[in-house]
Design brief:
- With 958 residues, the protein is of the alpha+beta class.
- It has 34 helices and 33 strands.
- An eight-stranded mixed beta barrel has the order 25-26-28-29-30-31-32-33, surrounded by four helices. Strands 1, 4, 5, 6, 7 and 8 form a six-stranded antiparallel beta sheet that branches.
- The model is unreliable at 1-24 and 213-219 (pLDDT under 50).
Length: 958
């Protein structure tokens, strides 16, 4: 029984059968389940680590790529901005821009941006204007003609036009053969130019070889940026209006390969290992359109794998593409890198994967080994497996936190620090190396200190209010604040604040990310200053002046008061520039600006419109109405001597005044009417002021018509010369003539020089007109010589002509072309011209004397001559002004002055010519006191060349 019972007991306990089940399929299934769970957890953990590592490498590469993309965009913007700056030279200049002005603006831009190959000004020549344009250009460039490229050579242009002609080219050396080249003959340039004209914006051509490359066999390609120029004041409302107002364009030539290389090389971005840069002149990367390559070609775009991305996250980023449109020309930038090696890029993920698999296998083996043991051991194994799983999860969280800190703080290039969440001080617990470099505070000095240490006593800032509110609300925050480094230097700090929460959502720390934006702030301030103030004088520019004037008008409207707008223009400032140089002119403008500021009230506005034009905005305040005393004070201040360049200059000003509301109700009208009144002041003899009157508008329109006609008069051959005889008082015979210009206009009739010479000087047209007078007079003198009448030919030079650097060459060319005897040419200069810059005048006069010509001082006694200097001038003749001759028969003072002039001239060994002799009494006085020659209507008024020939034929005498 005992045995049977024992046997039954043994059988019921199921020890043999249970042991077989524990060692058999039941135990194996548990082990496999543990193994599967371990592998799945391992794969999940390694996938998360893999994603974190991939995102880290992608973020680093994205920063590198965005840095290059931003530099690429900024460099393109700089090129376009430089071109627009050059356009401003033409927009603000009241006179045609000279090559020297163009060069002074273009060359600094070329030095600043070496990838810019050149700056070019194209003049738009319409059909019918070619002959006159080429004639005008030949005065500066002998042999000039409009050219086109044909079969690889530059030949004279054919066809009816129009033409887009290169007039200025910088740098000019080795490029002078391109002067006159017609841009419209190049289809690529013509297409882009039409886009620019029609849109009024900067446009770009496609990629093309250099014109110089085709001429000299040099390899290289270029694309050009072009900015259209329109006639000042012309309406530009639509495409048709812009085409009618188009007068030319400024063009920047960009060396395609050098452009890309230099912008990255200058920034040191070609030295970063593993970063490749490719630039294409097309909207997509193709080898045919490649402009620049640094490193390897970009890898192909990888195909999408949604399943792999769900399991492991995004693939490694190997390329960033960016396309920018430059005035119609797309440039495509690709920044790339080689795919990172799996072993180096994902070492942590591989380690977690290997460790997890190993632990899972060990756990499964252990379970399988002890499965046959008791349930206690099985439960122990299960508990240990659960502990292992919990530890694995804990390791996962720990690894993620360590990786986050490593990526977000230690590896960050930006200053970062971590604070506790307890206010109000929010004690600093950690700072990264970038923070130490930015602030100068080492970690040991900053940890344990409150964050307010960075702002010091500067606590009243709007940005700090936002940051305090974000800290109090435990939310994200962003603000820009002033901070202070350890040495006390202020810098602008852009702060991003983010809370760090635990698993329960409670905030236990804050992460602060800082960006030093001081340079950006400074650049913004500079841009704002340039947008509102004149860079030369520091006065309000046109934009700010318009705003101040509009504010003054608004205030005056509300208070029923007046506003004076005074438009001021310096008299003969162009002569200062031409004779003493632009640097001296700039210095003079600065002094005038300071004096204007000192002459008005603090609440008044002084602005510079451009060139030598200034505007004063003078509102009426409670102190009483405006009076002319303020204007007279301004004129007196300007008229004081101005030391500049080692010399003293005397300048005056002409002022036009328009009054709100009588002369206009808006800023544009007031400025226009003040400008009109200023021109009236100039017509009244300069150095005075005039108030606007409605009748002045009619005079202004007439003046504009005359100016427009004057610009075409030379090309249309409308000028003629009349000649007034000069008579020897000893023989009574005519021995010379003075050439006097007349304008025979088909509509206005015969226009007196008094009506257009001053205008020609203001517009600069006096230079080509004066050259024409000199050539025509020499040719006529040569004709009379050939007919047996060796008359002396007197020709007047204006001050602007005398200041030209090529004056002597112009005289030589006139003599050589005509064959006229230099000894018979007498050049007349007023004493105010030669006394303006004595040293330069002496040098120029000596150069002219070396040619063999005679020199005369005209209008003697009306200027501010110095007898000490007069004896140094190599002159031959003094001409007594008619204002002294007019009353010599009735005024003892005038008679004595003329007698003194004759005596002075003879003592200096000079001949004397008296101008304006009208009566026999004047003639008798001059003969009695040994005057050498006379000129005036008593003998003959100015007459045509044919009438002079008739006099010579009949041998007319006094």
């Amino acid at each position: 029984m005992h045995m049977d019972g024992r046997g039954t007991s043994l059988h019921r306990s199921g020890q043999p059968g249970d042991k077989r089940r524990l060692q058999g399929p039941v135990v194996s299934r548990r082990a496999l389940l543990v193994l599967a769970i371990g592998i799945l957890l391992t794969l999940f953990l390694s996938g998360r680590v893999y994603r974190v590592e991939t995102e880290k490498h992608n973020a680093q590469f994205t920063r590198e790529a965005e840095l290059r993309v931003r530099l690429f965009d900024e460099s393109i913007d700089d090129a376009v901005t430089g071109l627009r700056s050059l356009n401003q030279l033409f927009a603000i200049s009241d006179t045609p821009v000279s090559r020297a002005q163009f060069r002074a603006m273009a060359m600094p831009l070329l030095k600043e941006h070496p990838y810019l190959r050149s700056f070019v000004f194209h003049r738009y020549v319409r059909p019918g204007e070619r002959r006159a344009y080429e004639a005008a250009m030949r005065t500066r460039h002998p042999g000039f003609t409009i050219k086109q490229e044909r079969e690889g050579r530059l030949v004279p242009a054919t066809g009816p036009g129009p033409w887009l002609v290169i007039e200025f080219f910088e740098p000019l050396p080795r490029n002078d053969l391109l002067l006159g080249y017609d841009g419209l003959s190049d289809p690529v340039h013509a297409l882009a130019a039409q886009r620019a004209i029609d849109s009024g914006m900067v446009a770009a051509s496609g990629l093309k070889p250099f014109v110089q490359s085709r001429q000299r066999g040099v390899e290289g390609k270029v694309f050009t940026l072009m900015a259209p120029l329109y006639r000042p004041g012309a309406p530009l409302d639509d495409v048709a209006a812009r085409r009618r107002a188009f007068i030319g364009e400024n063009v920047a030539g960009v060396h395609a390969h050098r452009f890309a290389r230099q912008i990255f090389e200058r920034a040191g971005l070609l030295a970063t290992a593993g970063i490749h840069i490719n630039v294409y002149a097309a909207p997509s990367p193709t080898e045919a359109a490649l402009l620049f390559r640094h490193g390897a070609p970009p890898p192909p775009v990888p195909g999408a794998s949604p399943l792999l991305e769900r399991l492991l996250g995004p693939a490694a980023l190997t390329r960033v593409s960016h396309t920018v449109d430059i005035g119609g020309t797309p440039l495509h930038l690709v920044v790339s890198r080689a795919p990172p090696a799996a072993g180096s890029a994902h070492a942590s993920a591989l380690l977690v994967l290997a460790a997890g698999i190993a632990l899972s296998l060990l756990g499964a083996a252990y379970l399988d080994a002890v499965a046959a043991r008791s349930r206690i051991i099985e439960r122990t194994v299960e508990e240990r497996t659960a502990q292992l799983h919990a530890r694995t999860c804990e390791l996962q969280r720990t690894a993620a936190e360590l990786q986050l800190r490593n990526r977000a703080i230690e590896a960050s290039a930006n200053a970062m620090f971590i604070t506790g969440a307890q206010g109000p001080d929010y004690i600093v617990e950690y700072v990264n190396p970038a923070f130490e470099r930015t602030t100068g505070y080492p970690s040991a000095e900053m940890v344990g200190k409150p964050t307010k240490l960075l702002v010091g006593a500067d606590v009243e800032q709007p940005g700090l209010i936002e940051l305090r509110a974000a800290l109090a609300a435990c939310r994200e925050g962003h603000a820009t604040v002033r901070c202070y480094r350890k040495d006390g230097a202020m810098y602008w700090n852009e702060v991003y604040l983010a809370p760090v929460r635990d698993e329960n959502g409670e905030v236990h720390h804050f992460v602060h990310v800082n960006y030093d934006v001081t340079e950006t702030k400074r650049y913004q301030e500079q841009l704002e200053y340039r947008a509102n103030f004149d860079p030369l004088t520091g006065l309000a520019n046109r934009n700010l002046l318009q705003d101040r004037l509009q504010q003054a008008i608004s205030y005056a409207s509300r208070t029923r008061r007046t506003v004076w707008v005074a438009f001021l223009d310096l008299d003969r400032f162009k002569f200062v520039n031409d004779s003493a140089g632009h640097s001296c002119g700039d210095m003079l403008l600065k002094v005038v600006a300071e004096r204007l500021q000192a002459s008005v009230r603090a609440a008044d506005t002084v602005g510079r419109m451009g060139g030598d034009e200034f505007v004063l905005v003078l509102p009426q305040y409670e102190t009483g109405p405006m009076t002319a005393a303020t204007i007279e004070k301004v004129m007196a201040q300007v008229a004081r001597p101005i030391p500049a360049g080692g010399k003293e200059f005397f300048v005056s000003c002409s002022i036009g005044i328009a009054v709100f509301p009588d002369d206009g109700s808006d800023s544009e009208t007031l400025l226009m009417h003040a400008d009109v009144a200023m021109y009236r002041a100039k017509e009244m003899g300069r150095n005075n002021y005039q108030f606007f009157e409605p009748a002045l508008n009619t005079r202004t329109q007439a003046r504009l018509r005359i100016e427009s006609a004057l610009r075409n008069a030379l090309a249309r051959d409308e000028f003629v010369l009349h000649y007034q005889p000069q008579v020897d008082l000893k023989t009574g015979r005519m021995i010379g003539v003075e050439a006097l210009i007349r304008w025979q206009h088909p509509e206005f009739g015969m226009v007196s020089p008094a009506e257009f010479i001053t205008l020609a000087e203001e517009t600069g047209l006096i230079v080509p007109i004066g050259a024409w007078v000199l050539r025509s007079a020499c040719a006529q003198g040569r004709a009379w010589q050939a007919a047996g009448y060796p008359l002396r030919m007197a020709v007047n030079l204006s001050g602007i002509q005398f200041a030209q650097h090529d004056l002597v060459q112009t005289v030589v060319a006139a003599l050589d072309d005509s064959g006229f005897d230099p000894a018979c040419l007498e050049i007349e200069l007023t004493e105010s011209i030669v006394m303006h810059d004595v040293e330069k005048s002496i040098a120029t006069l000596h150069q002219l004397k070396l040619l063999g010509v005679q020199l005369a001082v005209d209008d003697f006694g009306t200027g501010y001559s110095s007898l000490a200097y007069l004896k140094l001038f190599p002159i031959d003749v003094l001409k007594i002004d008619q204002s002294f001759v007019r009353d010599i028969a009735t005024s003892a003072d005038d008679a004595m002055i003329v007698l003194s002039m004759i005596s002075l001239a003879h003592n200096l060994g000079l001949k004397v010519i008296a101008e304006g002799v009208e009566t026999p009494e004047q003639l008798a006085y001059l003969r009695r006191h040994d005057c050498d020659e006379i000129q005036g209507n008593h003998f003959s008024r100015p007459i045509a060349a044919a009438a002079i020939g008739q006099m010579l034929h009949t041998e007319r005498c006094l």
